TrEMBL record:
SUPFAM superfamilies: 2Fe-2S ferredoxin-like, CO dehydrogenase ISP C-domain like. This is (2Fe-2S)-binding protein. The keyword Zinc-finger does not apply. It comes from Comamonas antarctica. Keywords: 2Fe-2S, Iron, Iron-sulfur, Metal-binding, Oxidoreductase.
């Protein structure tokens, strides 16, 4: 039988049996029914799959089950209900930073994390968001949202 992995998912302790090399992105979407994290490149380059691992952004396509033991995972399903994401979601919506929406969950995970960092400015936030690609190439609206969030 596969080993059991226990971790905290969106504030709830969870445990499941699966192979050690099952990817978190797959587990979220196929086992837990959480489809907010999106498969894009699946090699850690596009940011569509970003979640928080112990409060910091991480590519769920690169995280394997064995790495989750005892850790804390937050997905867009929980973060989008939390007050800290409200200004980020509003800025993206008001600035035209959402087109097809495929990258938006990852963008919100990344931007909300940066928005909580003391002393962050627009130039640094923009540079640090380089791991989030928009397949619509809608970077103008996303950049305007960054300038609203980091005045
Ligand atoms: Fe994980 Fe692209 S799907 S970074």
């Amino acid at each position: 039988q596969d080993p059991a992995w226990s971790f905290v998912l969106n504030g709830q302790p969870v445990s499941l049996h699966c192979a050690a090399d099952q990817r978190l992105l797959t587990l979220l979407r196929e086992h837990f029914g959480l489809a907010g994290a999106k498969p894009g490149c699946e090699v850690g380059r596009c940011g569509a799959c970003v979640v928080w691992l112990d409060g910091q952004p991480a590519n769920s396509c690169l995280l394997m089950a064995w790495q989750l033991q005892g850790r804390r995972i937050t997905t867009i399903e929980a973060l989008s209900q939390a007050p800290e994401s409200v200004p980020v979601i509003a800025a993206l919506a008001q600035c035209g930073g959402v087109q097809c929406g495929y990258c938006s969950p990852g963008m919100v995970m990344g931007l909300t994390y940066l928005h909580q960092q003391p002393g962050m400015d627009a130039a640094n936030a923009s540079a640090l968001m380089c791991g989030h690609l928009c397949r619509c190439t809608g970077y103008g609206g996303i950049q305007r949202a960054i300038e609203v969030l980091f005045p």
